[in-house]
Amino acid sequence: MSSGALFDYGDSLRSIGMVLVAPPHRRRGLARAVMDRCLSMAGRRPTMLIATAMGEPLYVDLGFAEVGRVARMASDSAAAGERLPSISTADVHAVLELDRMACGADRSALLRSLLARAAASAVVRRASGAIRAFGIALRQRDQLVVAPLIAPNTSDAVTLFLSLAGRCAGPVRLDVPTRQEAFLSALAALGLTQGPSAPIMLLGAGSLPGRREQIYAIASRGFG
Ligand SMILES: CC(C)(COP(=O)(O)OP(=O)(O)OC[C@H]1O[C@@H](n2cnc3c(N)ncnc32)[C@H](O)[C@@H]1OP(=O)(O)O)[C@@H](O)C(=O)NCCC(=O)NCCS
Fold it and tell me: What is this structure's pTM?
């Protein structure tokens, strides 16, 4: 009848997702009760979520503020690029560390679960061999979903996207923070179209932790 999930990314961040109330039971306070329960479990730690238009009024009422937006980019097919090496078992620690720096939070459990069911993954290395950027792609029904993409610059993000999109034929999509204007333009030039954006909302802090400028595609609207 109703659901909501709290994802624990350590002391610096928690995320709420999967808030859903079955249509016959809406407007009776169920989502508010789910949110109250999640927030009491989160304590005073910063808590983020990505809102739908239906959920936003409740989150504003609870004190959440918009700190950014994500836009969905999609295409029926995408051009292929250079085939980059995949994330190997030996790379996992470095990948988790890059993600931790970008998100300012420990998402190891989420990343390990995404890697376990990845359709494809890719890394960009420095001359020293150290990993400086990575991306993961999942297959969801007939679509390839690129999630996440963590990179130090737009050029690496585009290279990663093209490598991942080229691995699997067919439709592709990703959710891109709207602050990544150059990356959004590059994706548009590759033929992806931009859908409506959704607010990233935060409670308990003025801004999200981490080097958010390194996030080119988020892991999931549900997980943050
Ligand atoms: C968003 C959703 C979870 C709200 O569930 P709900 O149980 O109906 O919400 P509540 O009854 O607890 O309402 C809490 C408050 O949210 C706001 N609200 C809820 N539904 C609203 C609507 N359709 N229009 C405007 N405000 C709404 C109101 O402020 C409401 O308080 P009020 O009833 O005292 O005015 C539900 O509509 C839903 O499942 N939608 C589809 C999935 C979705 O978008 N989930 C949100 C993911 S971020």
Answer: 0.93
